[in-house]
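It is worth pausing here to work through a concrete case rather than discussing structure prediction in the abstract. The textbook approach is simple: state the sequence, then state the predicted structure, then interpret. We follow exactly that order.
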Amino acid sequence: MAGGRPGASMAGSRIWWLGLALAAAPLAVHAEAEAPKPSDPGKPAAPPASAPAKAPAKAAPKTVEAITVTGSAPDSTSTLDAKSYTLGKDLAATNGSIADALRNLPSVEVDLQGGLSLRGDTNVTILVDGKPSPMFDGKDRADALQQLPADQYERVEVITNPSAALNPEGTAGVINLITRKSRGAGVTGSAYVTASTAALKRMGASFGYNTKTLAITGSLAGNYQRNKNHIHDVKVGPEPTTGQILTSRDDSIGRNISRGPSGRINITWTPDPKDQFTAAGSYNSFLVHGHPFDAFETDTAAGTPVSLLSTLGHRRFLETDNSISAGWRHTFGEGHELSADALYNDSLGRDHTLFDETQVLPTPNLLREKIRDDSSEHHSEFRLAYSQRVAGGALKVGYELKHDDNDANYKDAKGPTEAGLVDVPALANHYLFTQDINAAYATYQRAFGDLDVQGGLRIEEVRFTLAQLTAGLRPGQDYSKAYPSLHLAYKLDDERKVTASFSERVQRPPVVFLNPLIYIEGPRQTQQGNPNLKPQDTQSFELGYEKRDGQSNYQATLYYRRYVNQFSNFQVDQGGGVFLETFGNLGSARNVGLELTAGGKVSSKISYTASTNLYWSEVDGGNLGIGASAQSGFGAAGRANLNWQVRPDDMVQLNAIVNGRRLIAQGVLEPVFTLNLGWRHKLNDRITATLTAQDVAGTNRFHRRLDTPALVDRFDFEPVARSITLRLDYRFGGGAAKAAKDPGFEYENAGGPG
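Step two, the predicted structure:
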């Protein structure tokens, strides 16, 4: 709570001093590096300056025939602590959103509402080029994942057990989106236009400029889309005051129009081989006009209605996200670097909805309600990193300082007409949130023959305050914690290796989970945070095996995760058909799984990638007082891509995804299956056409089931997801020249040059 533990300030001071020491260390080491060094014992000594070496005898001239080597980037690669997947051959990544592209990656799941999870855990950190982005941080992340075009990114790094060098936030791990960079000399670029039967229109362009010392990459995009979905929610349970069994139904139709521009620019300047300066900026805007309709009905066990209510909303949601960053890196020698970078993100949200509410029972009534939910979020970071070869290995140390400053202001006005709306003071909700994190880390990696070892430790001091202005409360927390990591890789031979890893991660509650006042989300749904929520800690263990056989790759990963203080949302019946969503720390949770992935070529024209995740999970929410006891069960998920290079200029792709039944604190999520088809045709060296069919079988549905003595809930979300999309890409500059030289036809996303 506010004030914190007595030792917290001392721990914070230690981290500050460690950060200053890390900042000063490179200067001392650099001075040492300038001094003469003894010869490497593994190399022959250089001759003394007074005795010039004899010129070697001239070898007889030889004639060597020219050798031509062609190839393409692999679909996936792995390092000691990460797996990287290219998006070039994924047609969903060409025509769809970044959510569509992530759905096709092993370990990653994205539900129909944009909810992201990694091996079933929704606490995932998303980075862009290794840095946090305002688009993917906060309650509107799901909207960003579903609206941003995937062609802005060329590959994705999936890190399920990050090292101590990475931010420990996100118990499931880290997903790092790598943006497209320009390649080739001079000016390169591309432009595209997309149209879909799902009322999607998207267009954009990217460009690149490269010289020996300067590289500039930029892109602009805009989209317009209409979408529609249906929600059926049926809850059955005893009325809290009378004990009478009531059935509450909510039939909802959501209709939205979304549009918005986005743009980014990256600049890299390398004035000499030792120094490199970078700068980047991005802008994204989401504007949503919605017309949600809900029909609420509450009946007795005999089927007699006791409440009839309908609402028609007019929603306008606008969010603008901005990000700027700058960095510098100096190279003293091989494996010896010093870097510093800073970034600033802000996100401004304006969510205004006007409801027309018509009540038939118990008393006829007409009412208007206007909800204004405004937010302003600011995030800044400074990072200093240093690396050098030490004792035959690689040492990396760093210091990070992070600051968050958020302002959220919620107002609710009611009245008989729009002109007669009056603010309801009891529903006001205004708070400020500030958080500071000081962190220092060190990792050391060294090879012992065929065994590669990396160990790391991060220490963080965290302090936050939630100033609840409306209620006059100031809850907060102040704590320090250490996060160790260990990664091992043993090379069995040139084609096979075994890996093992351990890491400890944390998930800090989002501020909306902490806010103690009630949000009105609708006539029958409210939300209240819990300021006493503890951070969620996760201990993660992995054991892996990888084999490469020619152009095929096979991987198996056995993992175990133990969750401490895992927080979860749950429903509480307030009576009268009104339900409250709140949050608490689970008693315990465990997860054990086996993930299998494979990829390669069936023939010279047919290639595939496939993965499956078989797991057992246990969730115990008995301590939450909601009637949920410990439950466990098995589940499975999988996906497969089949690529057929029909001709040099034509490729057909089939994509299938299935997410199995999964346990949550209250109930289960039912299986979901999706089938997609795609075709890409190269018209010439500059123009490419891509045609995709999404959700061919019309099975893309979301179902949540809950069955406890206190509450039975059946929630069904049915979007209109089936669609056919056509996209045309035009390349110019160096990108077109490169395509003309390629001996074969490789599907590289035309969202960026090269």
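Step three, interpretation. The first strand starts at residue 76 and ends at 78. Residues 8-34 form the longest helix (27 residues).
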